[in-house]
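Fig. S4 source data, part A: sequence.
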Amino acid sequence: MKKYILSIAVASLFYTKTEACAWSDPDYDYFNLFTQSIIKDKSYLPFLHNYSDRFYTNYKPSQIPNENIESWKKFFGNQLSYTETDYLVNKIPTADLNDLKKGSPNNQLLKKLGSGFYAKYREAIDYLIEAKYLEPYMKINYVESPDSFYYRENESEKNATQLDYNKTISALTSLYSAARNPEIKQRYGYQLVRFNHYTRNYDAALEAFKKYIQPISLKGAAYYMALDQLAGAQRGLEMGTEANWNFFQVFMNSKSRKESSFVSMKLSDTASFNNIMKRAGTNEEKNMAYFLLGYEDFTNPIPMMEKMYDIDPDSEILKVMAARSINELERNYLPTYYYASKDSNSTSAKKDTTAEKPEVKKKELSFWQKIVLFFKNLFGSKKSDKTNDKSEQSNDDLFANPDRIPTYVKNNSYYYSQNENQKDFLDDLEKFTAKTKEKSKDEYWQIADAYLKFLKKDYEESSEILADIKTSNPEYLEEIKRMKVLNDIVSQPKIDADYEDHLMKDYSEYFVEKPPVKKDSTETNEYDYYGEVPSTKDFLKDVLANRYFLQGEDGKSFLMNNKLSDLQYNPNSNLVKSVEEFYRKPNKTQFEQQIIAKNLDAVGNIDAFFANIYGDRAMRSADFDKAKSYYQKAVSFAGIPRDNYEKYNPETGKYEKLVYNGENYDGYNGISSLVFGHNVWESFQSPESESMKAEDFTAFPFIKPKMNKLELADALIQLKKIGNGKDAKSANANQLIGNLLYNTSILGYYRELFVMDIDNSNGGKYDFWNTKRENPYQYYYKNFTYTTFIEPDNFDLAINYYKKAYDLSSDREQKARVLFQMASAEQGKYYQYEAKNQANIDYADPKWSEKNDAHEKQMGDLKNQKYRTYFAQLKSQYSNTETARELLGSCTYFDYFMKR
């Protein structure tokens, strides 16, 4: 028999992420397209599939019916609604019941019931008064173990031992004897069993059940409440097998106690469910035992599902198992984010790679290797190149091929080795579902079959199945409607204006933002801290973002998942241009206007925003005339949009919100003339007055102490013109231009100036990524800010200006300074080369350390041979200059190099 190790694989993937990143929540890694909770019996909601909690929690507690309230509702002749009954039993003050008993009710509900209500239900009201008195004490007293890890102070909470044992037993026994109604009599018996259990009089609890519960031939809510307490007492007496069986009976017959009885079964008997299976006699018991075994060991649920099918194909718990299985597949087939492949280029990555099977490594990774590998994949994975020509790209993309394994799993052989049998699992689950839908009368199986067809990309067949389903179940109808939308949109190879009109006409509810709905105060939602769980709406946005990406409409793709202001984090030129083209597009469709254009959020003057980005790129390319032309259009730039930015002020000891006050750098204004200087020491955190030293600017009065970008570009244009001469002033002009280009590069103190950043504090923008001047995004621009991409610096631009300065200068000290600056820029070229030539040695390789050392030596040798040109020249020709001696004291690496 084939074995599928789905849960182990996914658990290892997501739990490793949870261990490494405390903020990670695995239940945010898929879209919830198939609504598990459409099962009809809501008592099984806790046993649906999730990873964040021990039990499924994304439902309202009120969705699970409480058989005790239902029993009371029936007892009172259905005069009260479920909510009113719950209020009467659990929430109404005891004083109000006593007023009713006295014939003078003040409570509105009791007034509504009338004065004859107490006379008719005297025993029930008297019982509720007694139960409300006992309830605060009905907790087991905590006994500190001498082996406890920490000391717990005496708690002030009430518990059962705070009641007088003999008086309480006597009172309850008397009330039991006096009661005439067998249901009320049994409820007093329940209180006797519970009180003995919670006072740890376990033998007495067993005796009370035998004496007060069993003689009454009722097996309703009160019976199973008492049986639950009996099982707890049996566990206290270490009667594990008996306790387990009774908890199992509670699990089977109770609606509201399934979760607690399941936990109790686990605590009672180490062989819990296997022993239950041996003891199960009826088909119902066997069916439930199979469910528990399959739920507990979810590595391959289909064999257990087959056994359950043989017993009862209409079983509700069989649907629960199917829902869990479908959810497991969905998590793996449709993750919320596809990472870029580190090996393939983008064009091939967009094609179907289902058949690509990386070699499965048999060697197990150590814990620390897994952690290192996780962080490497998350933060340090190399980016791939992407061609701008999309004419040959296939529409056979990730959403049209949901059975492709996500690349972040495929590239990790440890994770992937357990994941490769999913297609077999999907095929077998589809066969099982198809068989069950023919036998079962529940439309659920048709819906499940249609969804599995959707996962297999058979959208036509999925749609046909959905069209044939006849049901009046509102939850089923909603799921069918959603799946029809999914099939329609995902199967669409190209999104054009006509189709966008179709989206707005027929599916606007999946795209148009709705005002937030105030949550019910009783609603349990563990996701409030993170925000909303990914939904069908999010999935469809991703599908459209991917389609636009494949169609070459990068701007629209970007704006499906991001705001215009997000461009500040990765202002790469091609994408910015595409976004601007969409911004300026006339005659936008209704979909473009309402869904996409709404993300053109406030950045001040949008035209100035784009012009500033283009001007920055021109500056980094040393095209100062072009930069000036853009900066002239950016004079009204409102400042880099950082609404929530706070920075620590060491003088006040507080974090302060960013405010553009006319003095600080805002992305356009407030640039210091020290940008033309050189660094005294490399410290990005120190004030510029400590890290930077000015050159002699006296010959260039147009360099102002503070400039905006237009003034800066104009100064560079003048310097470039002067630099075309042949004298010392020309040498100085070229040196200043070289300084500016280096100082605004990834290595410079002013590295933030031309990449839409507000300061030089460290971050992803300042990494040497393995990329050319191409776009690393391969599928869409989702989580745009998570993947850093800035076109890399061209260090040769600075070096070329330095060469001019060196050749024109006759001053040895200036030549030494310029050579050092050239050597620093050459370091940048090496860092770029190094980033593109990583070792890529498998961490599971037993010779990892040896191979890694060899690679580092190879890179070190190459560095000295090809990227130390100007250091070597400085050492050989200018070591006796004052400049060189100063550098020895301020540059540790130069000092090391000079002593070699």
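Fig. S4 source data, part B ends here. Residues 1-23, 146-154, 341-418, 521-531 have pLDDT under 50 and may be disordered.
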